[in-house]
């Protein structure tokens, strides 16, 4: 195998493959990137068995067909140090040789024939949805996906395809985030995408792509890349029973003023109390050792005073994903879950219970 390629082209692809490599065991073949030249094209693969990426590059020259593997982290470390000029890659005696001008590097290889295939799934179903809409929907709920929960299904996002709409759902047990789109042609189905995969899809695909899936895999592809992830095998909690059916109060509030006030009182402590009365909103830190307090004057059409005690991060996560100038806050009474909404995106938050 041999090929010549410009540094910035190969560096961008090798960088994008780092999250897909086995990091804990450098002796594993999945710590390697697979490289193959075939008829003037370069194919690169990286996978840790759970998630994987294949990229195709046609900007190569002086190529000889063949294949190789080499440690992905070491390969990137070498490429980063080189100048933004052509780099020569060549296989010699079970090593991959990297040359630029008078610099030469040698990295050991494994048997490329033993490199795992990314996915063997056949008869994948097409998810008939705009890739940009898909990414925008999962981006909104990403902050609420749990980390390292013993219930594996909570470490991912549920895609719940119903007859008339598609719900994108996540929860960390303290909040439930839901974004939804209209369903035009997709048959009813449910699957859970791991958080790592959700994050990588948002990085990799900025334009339209094809999304396909079956019971065990999700594949996203365009003419340059094919991404795959294994889906989480589990039953997602019945999230719809958590959604409040009736709300005593539903207030339209200015987003920017809320963000400014919340950030002002959370400079030292993240838990806050937000009190609503007919004349405005009071924001207070719940830190017992310091005092942070601010108020916005805003005529609210409410008879009684209510408060919400909450980790401010949940509010700021929601507000950072909203598009409109005003958002809706719905609640029944103090110490009960409350509702945040912006267009087709809403979050239900479990409060911090305070003694009345």
From TrEMBL:
<dbReference type="InterPro" id="IPR022635">
    <property type="entry name" value="DNA_polIII_beta_C"/>
</dbReference>
<dbReference type="InterPro" id="IPR001001">
    <property type="entry name" value="DNA_polIII_beta"/>
</dbReference>
<dbReference type="GO" id="GO:0005737">
    <property type="term" value="C:cytoplasm"/>
</dbReference>
<dbReference type="Pfam" id="PF00712">
    <property type="entry name" value="DNA_pol3_beta"/>
</dbReference>
<dbReference type="GO" id="GO:0003887">
    <property type="term" value="F:DNA-directed DNA polymerase activity"/>
</dbReference>
<dbReference type="GO" id="GO:0006271">
    <property type="term" value="P:DNA strand elongation involved in DNA replication"/>
</dbReference>
<dbReference type="Pfam" id="PF02767">
    <property type="entry name" value="DNA_pol3_beta_2"/>
</dbReference>
<keyword id="KW-0239">DNA-directed DNA polymerase</keyword>
<dbReference type="GO" id="GO:0003677">
    <property type="term" value="F:DNA binding"/>
</dbReference>
<dbReference type="GO" id="GO:0008408">
    <property type="term" value="F:3'-5' exonuclease activity"/>
</dbReference>
<dbReference type="InterPro" id="IPR022637">
    <property type="entry name" value="DNA_polIII_beta_cen"/>
</dbReference>
<keyword id="KW-0808">Transferase</keyword>
<comment type="similarity">
    <text>Belongs to the beta sliding clamp family.</text>
</comment>
<keyword id="KW-0963">Cytoplasm</keyword>
<dbReference type="GO" id="GO:0009360">
    <property type="term" value="C:DNA polymerase III complex"/>
</dbReference>
<feature type="domain" description="DNA polymerase III beta sliding clamp C-terminal">
    <location>
        <begin position="241"/>
        <end position="347"/>
    </location>
</feature>
<protein>
    <recommendedName>
        <fullName>Beta sliding clamp</fullName>
    </recommendedName>
</protein>
<feature type="domain" description="DNA polymerase III beta sliding clamp central">
    <location>
        <begin position="130"/>
        <end position="238"/>
    </location>
</feature>
<dbReference type="Pfam" id="PF02768">
    <property type="entry name" value="DNA_pol3_beta_3"/>
</dbReference>
<dbReference type="InterPro" id="IPR022634">
    <property type="entry name" value="DNA_polIII_beta_N"/>
</dbReference>
<keyword id="KW-0238">DNA-binding</keyword>
<keyword id="KW-0548">Nucleotidyltransferase</keyword>
<feature type="domain" description="DNA polymerase III beta sliding clamp N-terminal">
    <location>
        <begin position="1"/>
        <end position="118"/>
    </location>
</feature>
<dbReference type="InterPro" id="IPR046938">
    <property type="entry name" value="DNA_clamp_sf"/>
</dbReference>
<keyword id="KW-0235">DNA replication</keyword>
